[in-house]
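Annex B. Sample input.
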Amino acid sequence: MKSVKEVATESKIQDRLKNYPACLELVKYLFADEELQEMQEYSNNVSIRRLGYNDHGPVHMRQVVGNAIKMLNILHEFEIKTSLEQEEIGTFEDSMCAVILAGMMHDLGMAIGRQGHEEMSALLAQPIIDRALNYLFPNDLHKRVIIKSVATEAIIGHMSSRKIHSIEAGILLIADGCDMTKGRARIPMQINTTPRVGDIHKYSANAINRISIHKGERKPIKIDIEMSGDVGFFQIEEVLLSKIDASPAKQFVELFAGVAGQERKCYL
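Annex B, continued. Sample output.
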């Protein structure tokens, strides 16, 4: 059974896709896919209980999808084209579909282990991507090929360990980095009391109170982060900032962060 958080996040995602019928149909298909749900939940079990890392399961993957949709919509409002649009090979909605697929499956590889999990995620995702695209575009081989390719690039590139080239993959990379609030660390903080490898990630995430993504003042996308303590700067500087730096979408992002009640630091 899905958690309250999963259901609430799904509702928000569907609400943001009302103007994109293919994308809306895609998320409904993915949210109802029992195999994908089982894979996400098992990935989370390995991540939290076996490895002691933060949430890498169904809530996280849905949150990343929501972040990516929000950022893509902002770029669209500013008439900034995605890579598929720039190359005149696909539409904005095709790009959105690719990012949704990537967001929903980018951490499936955590079911196998942390090292190289992005490549394992891409491998595990292929049958589900094929199934979803055959359902959505049964008579359009062109769309299936380009969307699958961009989605796979975004999955493989979400750890910034591999060079990526599309705006779509770059948005997914940043969207993943933006899911680092204390909610991701809640369960591992409860069940792991002995110091373990990776603890700095859960403690730093636990210091992140709020992350907002909205239209910027100097650049299209503004990311604003409020923390409860300085340990949160680790999450920003070692995780999020490195992902933004590696993203082809970096030029569209401004980043501010600071402890509650103090002046925000401008990173970008």
